[in-house]
Amino acid sequence: MGLSSIAYDLGSGLNGPMSISHLSSPRQQLAFSAKSCTGSRACITVRAADGNSGSMRAPPSTVRASKLVTNAVAVKSETASIAATKSGHELLLFEALREGLEEEMERDPRVCVLGEDVGHYGGSYKVTKGLAEKFGDLRVLDTPIAENSFTGMAVGAAMTGLRPIVEGMNMGFLLLAYNQISNNCGMLHYTSGGQFTIPVVIRGPGGVGRQLGAEHSQRLESYFQSVPGLQMVACSTPYNAKGLMKAAIRSENPVILCEHVLLYNLKERIPDEEYVCCLERAELVRPGKDVTILTYSRMRHHVLQAAKSLINKGYDPEIIDIISLKPFDLHTIGNSIKKTHKVLIVEECMRTGGIGASLRASIMDNFWDYLDAPIMCLSSQDVPTPYAGTLEEATVVQPPQIVKAIKQLCG
Amino acid sequence: MAPSISTFRRAICTRVNASRFLASPSPFRNFSSSTEDSTPFTVDIAVPFKGHKIEPPPQVVETSAKELMTFFKDMSRMRRMEIASDQLYKSKLIRGFCHLYDGQEAVCIGMEAALTREDNIITAYRDHCTYLGRGGTLPEVFSELMGRKDGCTLGKGGSMHFYKKENGFYGGHGIVGAQIPLGVGLAFAQKYEKMKAATFLLYGDGAANQGQLFEALNMAALWDLPAVYVCENNHYGMGTAEWRAAKCPEYYKRGDYVPGLKVDGMDALAVKQAVRFAKEHALSKGPIMLEMDTYRYHGHSMSDPGSTYRTRDEISGVRQERDPIERIRKLILFKEIATVSDLKNIEKEVKKEVEDAVAKAKESSPPDASELFSNVYVKGYGSQVFGCDRKHSTATLS
């Protein structure tokens, strides 16, 4: 059985051969297999199920909203979420991260943190505040400014059984550690034939902030998503931040936890009792039936802001926070698409080669027959983030653009 | 420090090289030194150690007949293994990259003599012999080199990715210098877990110019981690001679605030002495840098003839004058621990061992097709492979 006989079909070539058992009817299976002929990567023409050619999606770059909402991040989620009852306690997102981290450090003495200014300074975003006093300097280690080396150090320590958490002061700085993350962190479990597990967590704030400039506004999700061996999640609320932090620490795989600079002060009431979120499950933020909106991180809040306006106009969007950026939770996403038949992806990643691009391909590969319209994807512009406030706002997707896209998609 | 030599012994040393191995004068000589004899005796180390911000260890080292015989056998095995790998590569059974260690055997043998399996060793891609030294077996090596499933990393790592976690061997790394921060991490874990053991990070003269080396060294020194930096200086970073790549090719001094020691890397006993000294230092005072002055006979890898940037005379000169196995052979013969034919028999034994291992490895089959997707992630999530499609729980190949 030679490896040359793997059928990499259906255009995207991202995944290996498809299992078609998820398709329910034989007719669908037949249709599916007819499209999945080996050999040619057919150019897939976009066609709506009712026979009309899908209307062309509006390029988001030319959309200029009349009024830009600038404080979308402070919006409290009023829609249904997995959050707890009134009996919990209220805290900010960075405190939730700290709570999760502290609980895990108490639970397992092998858990340690390293990063710049995480110890005595308390963390540049206060995520590790107070932990060095509690656990000591060795467990909450202040490193010199040497991302490549301390990430490598964390991987080496993980090879022996420690569970380090690497904090990048800004995700963008972890580009310096890309070799260690890709080659050592991602690959050692494989190249060592399973001898080493690398249970590291690499976390840090990324995303476009408040006029931080191009180099400090990077979104690295797209760079890490194709590294085999890594798992990647993005937190967006205090509830899932704490849960994902705990899950990531307990995971035996290397996990990249993407936080967002502007979400650290988000407030929410979370349960008192201990809970852990699933690293591979997407979060159903708001059930609906007209359209599936897939989003993550800060864009979730922009989507929720837009949703208010959409609901007033009579639309019923189903909003899913995908949480898991690698691998995608196609189970939850698929169930939603089977219900609504229309998808809008709203992301903060760049348009080119971003999370949305992969997600689109995945959805097309798996749920082609369920789509009534082309998948729309609103992403950030393929530009370095400018400093000027107005330009910066135009770089990322704003709620009015989301509203306009839904109107286009749903009619 | 000239070894003190009695005139009697000087008379019997006709060859220049043998004069390096004269032991301190002793009126008694074992009438029949058995090869299993562990009685210690001292040997002078010919080439003096050079220290940087540290007092070098003594130039005499303790050894025994048994140890010398072990050195001889192990180094011969390593040499044979590398030569066999050369032949296998030329017959296209080994593909890709193959970096051979012959000439440098004394470094890993000397290290093993001074360390335990609690200590960690991490090295770069020239790792076949280091792996063997750490308890690897010949069939595992050849299977891995030929990409078979009985290889030490299931055939999926290849020449540059040999690991043996249970024996403290952490590889086996392809990217130059990237193993150094990993090694500092290993030392960090040893300190964290309060183990009385050290980590030896091996790198070459080419990697000595990597920034991450100094970043990691700073951290190791800052936190007193039990890390020993070992520069295997074979004087060529692939095709570039050390003086063309480094402003300061005295690699043992490059640690600046970290003390250093220069060692004759072709002398297994000198290596043993230095490594023992370094381990003690690392466990009590913090990092130390060792420079092993060694030489590789082959080119950088099998695709490099090794003669475009150095002369054949140089290579054969080193082979004649400094070969590590020859030194031990001469010492054994001089100490009358074994005869010439004994040693030849050992070499024959070792040759057969290697040939048997190659034959066994050739019979081994390539990894199963399903192994393509195993160990990408750790099991326990109900999935073997995560692409961006979570539904890929098993890979079915048509």
UniProtKB/TrEMBL annotation, chain A:
Keyword Oxidoreductase annotated: yes
UniProt cofactor(s): thiamine diphosphate
Enzyme class: oxidoreductase
Record-annotated Transketolase-like pyrimidine-binding domain positions: 91-266
One of the Pfam families matching this protein, by short name: Transketolase_C
GO MF annotation terms: pyruvate dehydrogenase (acetyl-transferring) activity
InterPro entries from the UniProt entry: THDP-binding, Transketo_C/PFOR_II, Transketolase-like_Pyr-bd, Transketolase_C
EC number: 1.2.4.1
Reaction(s) this enzyme catalyzes, per UniProt: N(6)-[(R)-lipoyl]-L-lysyl-[protein] + pyruvate + H(+) = N(6)-[(R)-S(8)-acetyldihydrolipoyl]-L-lysyl-[protein] + CO2
Record-linked SUPFAM superfamilies: Thiamin diphosphate-binding fold (THDP-binding), TK C-terminal domain-like
Keywords associated with the record: Oxidoreductase, Pyruvate, Thiamine pyrophosphate
NCBIfam families documented for this protein: PRK09212.1 (NF006667)
PANTHER family per record: PYRUVATE DEHYDROGENASE E1 COMPONENT BETA SUBUNIT, PYRUVATE DEHYDROGENASE E1 COMPONENT SUBUNIT BETA
Functional note: The pyruvate dehydrogenase complex catalyzes the overall conversion of pyruvate to acetyl-CoA and CO(2). It contains multiple copies of three enzymatic components: pyruvate dehydrogenase (E1), dihydrolipoamide acetyltransferase (E2) and lipoamide dehydrogenase (E3).
Protein name as catalogued: pyruvate dehydrogenase (acetyl-transferring)
Organism: Ceratopteris richardii (Triangle waterfern)
From TrEMBL, chain B:
Any one GO molecular function term: pyruvate dehydrogenase (acetyl-transferring) activity
Pfam family, one: E1_dh
Cofactor: thiamine diphosphate
EC number: 1.2.4.1
InterPro entries hit by this protein: DH_E1, PDH_E1_Alpha_Subunit, Pyrv_DH_E1_asu_subgrp-y, THDP-binding
Coiled coil location: none
CDD domains linked to this entry: TPP_E1_PDC_ADC_BCADC
Glycoprotein in keyword set: no
Name of the protein in question: Pyruvate dehydrogenase E1 component subunit alpha
Any GO BP annotation: pyruvate decarboxylation to acetyl-CoA
Keywords: Oxidoreductase, Pyruvate, Thiamine pyrophosphate
Catalyzed reactions: N(6)-[(R)-lipoyl]-L-lysyl-[protein] + pyruvate + H(+) = N(6)-[(R)-S(8)-acetyldihydrolipoyl]-L-lysyl-[protein] + CO2
Domain Dehydrogenase E1 component: 74-368
Transmembrane segments: none
Function comment: The pyruvate dehydrogenase complex catalyzes the overall conversion of pyruvate to acetyl-CoA and CO(2). It contains multiple copies of three enzymatic components: pyruvate dehydrogenase (E1), dihydrolipoamide acetyltransferase (E2) and lipoamide dehydrogenase (E3).
Subunit structure, interactors included: Tetramer of 2 alpha and 2 beta subunits.
